[in-house]
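Ticket #4471: complex job returned nothing on first submit. Input attached below:
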Amino acid sequence: MLIKNSFTQTVSNYMNRHVPKLTDQHTILDAVKIFRKDKIWILPVMDEQNLFVGALTPSAIFKALSENASIDEPILPYIIKNTITVYETDDLTEVRSFLLEKQVGQAVVLSADNRVSGVLDTKNIIQAYKTRSDTYGYSLESLFQHMQTGILALDYKGRILVANHAAESMCNIKRDYSIGHHFSEIFPDLIEFKSDNPQMTDIPLQRITIDHKKLLVKYKSLSRESKYWGGIILISDLTDYEEIAKELEITKRLERTLQTVLNTTNDAYIVIDQTGKIDMINEAAMDFTKKPKQQLLGRSVKLAIPEIHLEEALNDDFQGEKLEAMIIEKRKCLVQKTPIFKDHQRVGTIAKIIYKDLNKWKSVIKTLTDLEKEVSFYRGELSLIGGTPFDLDDIITQDPELKKLKHFARQSASGFSNVLLLGESGTGKELFARGIHNASHRTGKFIKVNCAAIPEELWESEFFGYADGAFTGAKKGGKPGKFELAHNGTLFLDEIGDMPLLMQVKLLRVLQEKEFERVGGNETINVNVRIIAATNKNLTEMVAKNEFREDLFYRLNVIVLNIPPLRERAHDIPLLAKSITKKLCHLMGLGNVHLSKTVLMALSMYQWPGNVRELENAVERALNAIESDVLEIEHLPEYIQKQKINQSSEPPALKKTNVEQVSISDFYKLNMDNAEKDTITFALNQTNGNRTAAAKLLGISRSQFYKKLRKLDIL
Ligand SMILES: Nc1ncnc2c1ncn2[C@@H]1O[C@H](COP(=O)(O)OP(=O)(O)OP(=O)(O)O)[C@@H](O)[C@H]1O
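Support reply: We reran it on our side without changes. The output follows.
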């Protein structure tokens, strides 16, 4: 259809337009001259307005001359009036049929207004057909050459007439070599072609191998008007398909194995794709949701199991790997969501739902919590024995806010007022407490009590001590409590927000009366103790909810130091990191270890939910991994190396501009090139070497990024 339409031609494309103007006043001699000169076998005769009058043919002239007409006579009497005419716009194929039908070889061509446009003869039609057949031929040839199926055309003796590119490449043959050769030279396994006998019948699909290529070959015999003249061989290359099939088979096998493994576990597993549709589930998941496979697989998890909120884990800011307690389908469970990545893109999420034997888990978690409490308690006890005195100067900072707090703490240290230290865990509350005590010049000891770590039954005896024989197993002579031990010194009540209400009442009484009795004793003991309390809880909120006594709160809330979290003073991070490294290296006997600029940058970027304590732990872990005297980014815990950085916001360390010695600005000011290099290396590390993503992370164009790589020689 396409080919046919593309060959639709009109008479105007092929007619002869160079026809001399002949009127009825021209002589027979004029006409003869034109016939001789222009080799035209029909001459249109027209009037003054070029309107068609009739035509003159050589046979009309012969007829006139044979009737003794003079050659100087006008042609008028010999003009043929009923000449065959066609129009310029007529379809050439139809005109050809029309001329055949009329048994004439030429016609006068007229325009729509019956003026003479030219003549059309058999030569013109042949030319048109030749052009058409050339175009057909060219189209078929390129179609043939560009087909993916290999094709070899054979003559009736099985000799190759023509081969397309696909056949040449599949059979590894050269055109010059193959043409004229017998097909069996290329396909010796195709027995049918071995003889010189014509292969009159088709050969169905056969698999053969040539040069490790797996081919599918089929022979189609060709004949016209029941005369056999050859055939074509059609070849398909199966090598790639077989590879794909093999991979598919492996994938299927892996999927079966994975499914079997998943089905053997007690926990429910649900896997979703990036659109939130459930991709895979195990039997436990069906058991847990009480839904059959059909209601889960392929369905949106949001609709199938709405309570799990698994689709939220597809968001970029999802950190993952947290165990959450949930109630799904009215059943208590623990859910762990883990994102699945492919080429640094989130492509899905796995949810592991623990819902069987939850009591076992509960007891494990309780044991862990108890152990933690115990460790914390004994740590507190240890600090009593060998605690080093802390000076407020040991608090490292260049943050104006924290500097002010240090100054204020020093000023209030010598007073008697109680101090309340507020701040997230690990921000340095204890450091402040010890520093205040040290600066207070109080003669007594610094005694720490971790209120969250005291077992309930020990509260009273811990605080007030016990008298001789107070209870079975009591130490002979009794034991002093923390209040007695802190006499003339400082009692640091850490985690005060965890103190039970009953104990709060008792504490308040001592704070008011400054006296108490030991448990089981009746002697009144007077003490001079300064209380420093600390908490990471919101005491105001607790008071409002009656979880903390208001009167005690106001007693403690005299001097309040609100210590900012580390992420709000990120410019302290490099300073702290260097100091911690120095301290730990000394303890670990490591000599001098330097932190690379990339490490300082990564540490500065991190949010530090566990504050300085978390920083200490991260540096300690990293120092255990180093082999030289430089701590590099790969030594840092993975979650810091691969932290999720909000591309739109600047790094936390850059947020405050009013500090004189900002660490990140150190990088830039001290050595622009080095800082740039480190930043780029860091970005590349973040993106696992993906340069486009790294450029995006840095907020610069790809071309700028590549320019910098070249400039800084990072290739
Ligand atoms: N500004 C600082 N300079 C040096 N070391 C610090 C600083 N802040 C905290 N640290 C160190 O961080 C660790 C945690 O500090 P600290 O125990 O005082 O925090 P905290 O707020 O009392 O924590 P929690 O509330 O969990 O008891 C300690 O080892 C401490 O020495």
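The CA atoms of residues 589 and 711 lie 40 Å apart. Closing as resolved unless it happens again.
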